[in-house]
Amino acid sequence: GHLKLHKLIAFYDDNETTIDGKTNLAFSEDVGARFAAYNWNVLRIEDGNQCPSTLYEKVVQEAKSQREKPTIVVMKTIIGCGAGRGLEGTSKAHGGTFSNIEDLRAKWHSPKGLRSSGDSVDAQVASLVQRELDGLALSAVASESDAGGETVLPKFHVPQPVMKKFRDFGTRGDSKADEWEEMLLRYYSEFKDKEPDLVRDLSERMQGKYLTDDWHASINQYLNKHNEMIKSSLRTLRNEPDEADEPDAMR
């Protein structure tokens, strides 16, 4: 907003659902109002699942007409819409099994130009996206030609000096990572006989195998294992019983 990046359009999926349940468990802010305070243009679609293409196109065109503000489109949606009772509108839709997945794909992933039969919907979407990208590339070449030799950067173009700069960061990062790995190997080699327990503990921590035995002293209250609302995504705790439904490999 401060930089007036008016070509930036963001879509916010307001389905009021997180992996652990409804967002009101820990989140009650008005996202649109927050972005308005950032000096963004805020547009809203009240029924994102049933939004007709004409309304969608109208909203996008209004966003494109901005000349001083980026735009965020806040869309009210129902997660897992059409998946049936038990999944639709619940946190289970984040990773649940959809028995009617092909019907849902045909229903919701059907932009203009897709067929209901023939190639898979995913392949058709990929083809449409590629055609859009090809069109942008041709537009960029035309922009350079129309400029009559002047330096005009086409849309979505990253100048080579900028590209090189960022790739250099990656190369430097690889080098630093190699240095770190070599240092750890030297440490293991030097201290594996002098301090075997310390080296073993460090090695297992680096691999993320478990929390340390003294974690009770560091954390006053650990997350209640029996709270069914919270999905298990925690490390296995050494010397602690595992009461979760999923096997150890999934924790």
What does this structure look like?
By secondary structure, the protein is mainly alpha-helical. It has three domains: 9-118, no CATH class; 119-157; 159-209. It contains seven helices and five strands; from the N terminus they run E-E-E-H-E-H-E-H-H-H-H-H. The chain has helices at 31-37, 53-64, 101-108, 121-146, 160-191, 196-206, 215-218, and strands at 9-14, 17-18, 21-22, 41-45, 71-76. Strand 4, helix 2 and strand 5 form a beta-alpha-beta unit.
N/C terminus separation: 41 Å
User: Could you spell the SSE succession in H and E letters?
Assistant: EEEHEHEHHHHH
| Global outline | extended
Topology, number of strands: 5
Total domain modules:
3
Q: Name the structural class.
A: mainly alpha
Tell me the radius of gyration. Answer: 26 Å
The biggest sheet, with number of strands, parallel, antiparallel or mixed sense and barrel status, is: 3 strands, parallel
Helicity range: 25-40%
In terms of DSSP E residues, the strand content is 5-15%
Q: Could you name the ranges where pLDDT drops below 50 across 5 or more consecutive residues?
A: 111-119, 224-229, 243-251
Strand order of the largest sheet: 1-5-4
List the total number of helices: 7
Average of per-residue pLDDT values: 73
GO cellular component, one term: cytosol
Pfam families: Transketolase_N
InterPro entries: THDP-binding, Transketolase_fam, Transketolase_N
GO biological process, one term: pentose-phosphate shunt
